[in-house]
Amino acid sequence: MLYRVKPRQSLLIPNEALVGEGEEQAVFVVENGTAKRCAVQIGHSNELFTEIEQGIKDKNKVILEPDEIKDGQKVRTTGGGDK
Questions:
Q1: pLDDT above 90 (res 13)
Q2: Taking a C-beta distance cutoff of 8 angstroms, is the pair 11, 59 a contact?
Q3: Which domain does 34 fall in, by range?
Q4: CATH, residue 41
Q5: CA distance 44 to 28
Q6: Does residue 27 lie in a domain region?
Q7: 15: closest CA among 59, 55, 60, 67?
Q8: Is 36 helix (H, G, I), strand (E, B) or coil?
Q9: Domains in the chain: how many in total?
Q10: What are the pLDDT digits (tens) for 28-83?
Q11: What number is the average pLDDT over the span 8-18?
């Protein structure tokens, strides 16, 4: 038996960008120089990346190391904006 699988595009982010545990996953994005916590729905993951199914768009700038970031905190972006 054969199955035809439709290709799909996925938004992948580095695992270290995720905050939270279990189903309470979120990421911080930068909006107008401010960190904003966004709840996300995750899909498949591996040791490096996690698929984001809902919650952010590919145009959002995701904070990669959010360990000490708080929602609403002023932030500056440095390079890497097109990755």
A1: yes
A2: no
A3: 11-62
A4: 2.40.420.20
A5: 20
A6: yes
A7: 67
A8: strand
A9: 1
A10: 999 999 999 999 999 999 999 999 999 999 899 999 999 999 999 999 988 765 54
A11: 91
**Three-class DSSP category at 32:** coil
CB-based contact 52:12 (threshold 8 Å): yes
Apex 10 CA angle, 38 and 48, nearest 5: 80
25 lies in a domain?
Answer: yes
Alpha-carbon distance 29 to 9, whole Å?
Answer: 21
Tokens at residue 7, please?
A: 């290709």
Token pair for 58? 């590919």
| 2 is a domain residue | no
CA distance 38 to 21: 14
| Domain annotation covers residue 23 | yes
Task: Write down the residue that tokens 């972006």 correspond to.
Answer: 77
